[in-house]
Each structure stands twice: as C-alpha cells, then as structure tokens.
Amino acid sequence: MKIYQTAMTPSCRRVSLFLNELGIEVPRIEINVKEGDNLTEEFKAKAVNGRVPLLELDDGSTICESVAICRYFDEIAFNDKSLFGITTKEKADVEMWHRIIEFQGLYTGFQAFRNLTSIYDDRETCVYEWGAESKNRVREFLPQLDERLANSGYVASERFTIVDITAYIFVGFAQNGLEIEVLEQYPNIRRWFELVSSRPAFQ
Ligand SMILES: N[C@@H](CCC(=O)N[C@@H](CS)C(=O)NCC(=O)O)C(=O)O
C-alpha cells in the first residue's frame, strides 16, 4: 500500500500524526497539489474527492478522506490506543467533537485561507469576502474550544483521541496560516496544545 500526499498540507499531516501514534509506517508518494498534480485524470480516477491524502491498497482500490484513512489503519493495526473511543458514550463524544472541530474549526479555516489567499484560483472561484467571514467564524469558535479545554483534559474526553489530532492541526493552522494569535489569547488551548505537542508522535 501507499499514501499519496503533499506532506506539509494539514489533511496529510493529520494522517501522518495518526499513523505516528499507532507506530505504523506506510510508503509515501509525494505530489504537489499547488502545481496541480491532483488535477490530472489519472489522480482523479483514484481519488473520489480529487484531493490528498489518498491511500492506495495493494489490490489497487483506494480510500480518500483523512478520517476514513485513519479508521482503516485503526481497524487493521489491532492497537490498544482506541483513538476513536472506548465506551459507547466516549465513541459518541469523539464523533460529536470531531464534527464540531472539523465543521466549525478546520474546514471553516480552510475556507478562510483558500478564499483570502486565492491559493487555488486556478481551480475554484475565490470570494475574498467569504474568506473574511470564514475567518471571523473561526475567531468566534475559539472561545468555545477554550472553554471546553478549561473543563476537560483533552477535547473529546479526559484522554487523548483522534479529535486532539484534528484540533491540533486546526489550532496550528489558525495560528500560522490565518495569523490568529490563538496561543497568546487562549490559556486553556495553550495548556492543551503544549501537552499534545510533547507527545512522541508529534516530535
Ligand atoms: N476532507 C478532506 C480534505 C482534503 C483536502 O482538502 N486536501 C487538500 C490539502 S489539505 C488538497 O488536496 N487540496 C488540493 C485542492 O483543493 O485541489 C480530507 O480530510 O482528506
């Protein structure tokens, strides 16, 4: 099997951190999405969403969407980390917080970045005002995340789960990509971010 990736992009880093946590190494094929390597007919025939990361199995079948790829490895690796949750309640909390972090945080942040910078204007119409509004929505979401982390050791649970990987990618993206001073403004996010950053898988 192999993973097609553009290593530095948030969605690929998300999968890489998950695999690091499980201690799994998978061969990578580096492509350049900025240069449009994902826009070829050959790549689009493999990836339903036309994006990276993309996992190709030995039988030639493929899985895209980073969470689906993580789920695949979580199932085949027989690990004891239970990054998608242990109990029924914890699994539901993981699902709930994962969607909240993705919809209100990560993907809203992506919309902000893509529309403010026009980085992909060779393949989509960029609307600056939508980017600005999306960035506002990210700003509005951050206090909610900070409050959650004032009352919980990790985002979805009192222990580390996949949601912390997604939230870590989101906070780093907001801080560096969107230039929002998250860590300076939100002490509970900062406490949690430092804790997650210190994990061996994140080095
Ligand atoms: N929901 C997808 C998002 C994938 C995604 O947006 N990948 C970006 C890199 S972070 C990409 O391939 N961008 C190239 C493009 O939009 O053409 C996932 O989680 O895998």
From TrEMBL:
<dbReference type="InterPro" id="IPR034346">
    <property type="entry name" value="Gtt2-like_C"/>
</dbReference>
<dbReference type="Pfam" id="PF00043">
    <property type="entry name" value="GST_C"/>
</dbReference>
<dbReference type="InterPro" id="IPR036249">
    <property type="entry name" value="Thioredoxin-like_sf"/>
</dbReference>
<dbReference type="InterPro" id="IPR034345">
    <property type="entry name" value="Gtt2-like_N"/>
</dbReference>
<keyword id="KW-0808">Transferase</keyword>
<dbReference type="InterPro" id="IPR040079">
    <property type="entry name" value="Glutathione_S-Trfase"/>
</dbReference>
<dbReference type="InterPro" id="IPR004046">
    <property type="entry name" value="GST_C"/>
</dbReference>
<protein>
    <submittedName>
        <fullName>Glutathione S-transferase domain-containing protein</fullName>
    </submittedName>
</protein>
<dbReference type="Pfam" id="PF13409">
    <property type="entry name" value="GST_N_2"/>
</dbReference>
<dbReference type="InterPro" id="IPR010987">
    <property type="entry name" value="Glutathione-S-Trfase_C-like"/>
</dbReference>
<dbReference type="InterPro" id="IPR004045">
    <property type="entry name" value="Glutathione_S-Trfase_N"/>
</dbReference>
<feature type="domain" description="GST N-terminal">
    <location>
        <begin position="1"/>
        <end position="81"/>
    </location>
</feature>
<dbReference type="InterPro" id="IPR036282">
    <property type="entry name" value="Glutathione-S-Trfase_C_sf"/>
</dbReference>
<dbReference type="GO" id="GO:0016740">
    <property type="term" value="F:transferase activity"/>
</dbReference>
<feature type="domain" description="GST C-terminal">
    <location>
        <begin position="87"/>
        <end position="203"/>
    </location>
</feature>
